[in-house]
Write a structure and sequence with these properties.
With 232 residues, the chain is of the alpha/beta class. The chain contains 9 helices and 10 strands. The protein has 2 domains: 26-50 and 63-77 and 156-232, P-loop containing nucleotide triphosphate hydrolases (Rossmann fold, 3-Layer(aba) Sandwich), CATH 3.40.50; 84-152, no CATH class.
């Protein structure tokens, strides 16, 4: 579904991403794990169209995204939940969900999306009319994921969904990801949290200093003490 080949991202003289190759097949969860400053978010920004690559190719369902603007990438089926959540803090939970589904052509599908979001995250239904900015950090992350799902994506990209959350909330996010996997949704999970990623992903790429250092099945990575230092 997603094929990144030789991706290079520069900010002036600074090389943030260096010739990265990464692939995501349909219906799998792929993790991209690395420390802060490793280049993960630059890859996400390039995928979403917020950053123009210096070199390389990003393909989605066989089509090159080089000339496809951000809004058109969403319509093609790529939904990105950014680091920092990207909510509208003064708007209610439901209004944020409506914004997530703004591109859907039928009101019925928007209503179904909201119902699905409330089924996955019941606390959001309880907070339906509460301003997003007054939610707890975990509830805000749940809302951000629900907003991303409102667009009915083929590929959901999550950038650091566990950042700043308590362990019990991280567990709830992990359970939500397992539910999405059971539904057949394709997910690219971009994380510093290796434990969470290993618990939900099929395959994992480990990145450091803008370079992919290792790639293997999540089960093998979780059980290999020799690569633990790559996850620090």
């Amino acid at each position: 579904m997603l094929e990144i080949v030789g991706l290079t991202v520069r900010y002036g003289p600074f090389l943030a991403v260096d010739k990265v190759d990464l692939a995501v097949e349909a219906h799998e969860i792929v993790g991209l794990v690395g420390p802060n400053g490793a280049g993960k978010s630059s890859i996400v920004k390039a995928l979403g169209g917020a950053v123009k690559p210096h070199d390389g190719r990003i393909g989605f369902e066989g089509a090159d995204l080089a000339l496809v603007p951000t809004h058109a990438r969403v319509r093609r089926g790529i939904s990105i939940v950014p680091e920092g959540r990207g909510l509208f803090p003064r708007m209610s939970v439901e209004e944020n969900l409506l914004m997530g589904g703004y591109g859907l052509p039928e009101k019925r599908r928007i209503t179904q999306g909201i119902d699905s979001a409330f089924a996955m995250f019941p606390i959001l239904k309880e907070r339906r009319w509460q301003a997003a900015g007054t939610l707890s950090g975990g509830q805000q992350q749940m809302l951000a994921i629900a907003m991303g799902l409102m667009a009915e994506p083929k590929l959901l990209v999550l950038d650091e969904p566990s950042l700043g959350l308590a362990p019990i909330v991280i567990g709830e996010i992990g359970q939500a990801l397992k539910t999405l996997r059971a539904r057949g949704l394709t997910v690219l999970l971009v994380e510093q949290n290796a434990k969470l990623t290993c618990s939900v992903a099929d395959r994992i790429y480990i990145i450091a200093s803008g370079v992919i250092r290792h790639h293997d099945a999540a089960a093998r990575i979780a059980g290999d003490a020799r690569i633990a230092e790559l996850l620090i």
